[in-house]
Design goal:
With about 375 residues, the protein is of the alpha/beta class. The protein has a single domain (about 10-55, about 100-115, about 160-370), classed as TIM Barrel (Alpha-Beta Barrel). The protein is built from 16 helices and 8 strands. The chain has helices at about 10-25, 35-45, 65-75, 80-105, 125-135, 140-150, 165-170, 170-190, 205-225, 245, 250, 265-270, 280-285, 305-320, 335-340, 355-370, and strands at about 30, 50-55, 110-115, 195-200, 235-240, 260, 325, 345-350. It has an 8-stranded parallel barrel with strand order 1-2-3-4-5-6-7-8, surrounded by 7 helices. Helix 2 links the parallel strand 1 (about 30) and strand 2. The mean pLDDT is about 95.
Length: about 375
């Protein structure tokens, strides 16, 4: 039997099936993508936007040498003045990365998560690499080692990351928001359509988000005035990935125009399971019927799912038009997609290559609902 074309848009059977599915589904389907190339691939698979664009991925892999060096300069800075100078150097790299992705998406929504990982992840820790970095930065190796040691945390996944960085160092939030909004403004001025969405990660209190919203509003006013734009469309929202945030969603929605449930961390924190260490016991849980499914693969409806449903209900009680989605790995798993449909989400977001699965699952959920 002859092979069918591998490109989805060139396969008539795939195109017809997806068209049928799209005629029934109610959920929008977005993709998690970190580069313009990933974004373009997602569009080919039918993604209607980007539900998770991680800014930190510009510091990994090909072409990351210069931005990573500048990020390390920022991390090693002594005081706000030095830190702002490093951020000013980093700014054009972040803006170019965001602008290229917004351009590829051609008016589709792009949810851009601000810097999330702990800063210690971006600096080397072995002696040889530290000596090389010290030489690059023009500082003594001993002084650099002390700074790196100061960044070390006992539990970095629950440490100084996400919104906490933005509160301790507001200039980090300022740089990222300015980069996003200037990228959007330049595209608007050139006649392009854009729908950026700024997402604050690891929020657990309404006061954290309110603190960051003040920065967002100020920078948007400045950029809009500088570019002489009557409007600069950009939603402001947060990732709901901490149980407390789901419980206090009504307060958080006072400033958030959208929620995106980060179900990877939400599952981890709800169960108290480390995603990186479950291999030692989860197989026994599954074999023994302690758990019916891996909660990192399929949403745990009774625990994590209840927090999600509660968060949506409380958020929309405050803001009726609150946009709600999911950007964890569950966004491309059929049973989880059906759950998202059932609790009234607006969209799911998943890997570009799982977009077709999510589109089919969303159609099945709508058909089962009747």
């Amino acid at each position: 039997m002859p092979l069918v074309p591998s490109a989805p848009e060139a396969n008539p059977f795939y195109v017809r099936l997806m068209k049928l599915a799209d005629g029934f589904r109610k959920l929008n389907v977005r993709a998690n993508a970190d580069t313009p190339k990933d974004a373009a691939q997602a569009v080919k698979f039918g993604a209607e936007g980007i539900g998770l664009f991680r800014t930190e991925h510009m510091f990994y892999g090909e072409g990351s040498e210069e931005p990573l060096f500048l990020l390390r300069k920022m991390i090693m800075s002594q005081g706000e003045t030095e830190r702002r100078k490093a951020l000013d150097e980093l700014f054009p790299h972040v803006k170019a990365d965001v602008k290229a992705t917004l351009d590829v998406m051609d008016g589709r929504p792009v949810t851009i998560r601000l810097l999330d990982p702990p800063l210690h992840e971006f600096v080397p820790h072995d002696r040889e690499k530290l000596a090389h970095l010290a030489d690059e930065l023009g500082v003594k190796p001993g002084a650099l080692r002390k700074r790196v040691e100061a960044l070390r945390e006992n539990n970095p996944m629950l440490g100084h990351r996400g919104v906490r960085l933005g509160i301790t160092y507001p200039e980090i939030t300022e740089m990222q928001i300015r980069a996003i909004l200037e990228a959007a403004a330049e595209l608007l001025r050139s006649g392009k359509k854009v729908q950026p969405e700024v997402m604050i990660p690891i929020t657990s209190t309404a006061t954290e988000l309110a603190h960051q919203k003040v920065i967002f509003d100020r920078i948007r006013d400045e950029v809009r005035s500088r570019f002489k734009l009557s409007e600069l469309p950009c939603l402001f929202g947060t990732m709901i990935e901490i149980p407390r945030a789901a419980l206090r969603a009504g307060d958080i929605a006072a400033d958030a125009e959208f929620f995106s449930f980060g179900t990877n961390d939400l599952t981890q924190m709800t169960f108290g399971f480390s995603r990186d260490d479950i291999g030692g016991f989860l197989p026994d849980y599954l074999r023994g019927g302690i758990l019916s499914a891996d909660p990192f693969q399929t949403i745990d409806r009774d625990g994590v799912g209840e927090l999600i449903a509660l968060g949506i209900a409380r958020g929309r009680a405050t803001r009726a038009n609150l946009k709600v989605g999911i950007c964890g790995e569950h966004g491309g798993e059929p049973e989880s997609v059906m759950f998202c449909h059932g609790v009234g989400m607006d969209y799911v977001s998943c890997s570009p290559f799982r977009v077709p699965i999510a589109r089919l699952a969303a159609a099945h959920a709508a058909l089962q609902e009747g």
